[in-house]
Amino acid sequence: MKSVLRLHWMVLLVAILAVSACGKQVSRRESSETIDLSGRWNDVDSQQVAQAMTQDAMSFGWIDEWRRTKGKKPVVM
């Protein structure tokens, strides 16, 4: 009797899971929006950090001193 009851519960659980997977749900995103799926460091993260660091480095007063002493713009890679 216990095994029959357990079998019925298992069948009911599988049926509920199967029916719940049938629903349609679509979420639209902007094409320019970045979505982090893994939570790990990726190429978008590295590009954003590199861009922020470059802008930060170029905003300080050393660049004017460099141009004055060297006579040219510094190379940033």
| Helix-strand pattern | HHH
The proportion of strand residues reads under 5%
- Write down how many β-strands occur, each being a DSSP E stretch of 2 or more residues: 0
Largest sheet entry: none
Radius of gyration: 29 Å
The backbone outline, from C-alpha atoms, is rod-shaped
Whole-number mean pLDDT: 85
Fraction of residues in H or I helices: 55-70%
Structure classification: mainly alpha
How many helices? 3
Distance N terminus to C terminus? 74 Å
Unreliable segments (pLDDT under 50, ≥5 consecutive)?
none
What does this protein look like?
This protein has 77 residues and is mostly helical. It has a domain at 45-77. It is built from three helices and no strands. The termini are far apart. The mean pLDDT is 85.
Helices, strands, pairings?
Blueprint: H1 2-20, H2 43-58, H3 62-70
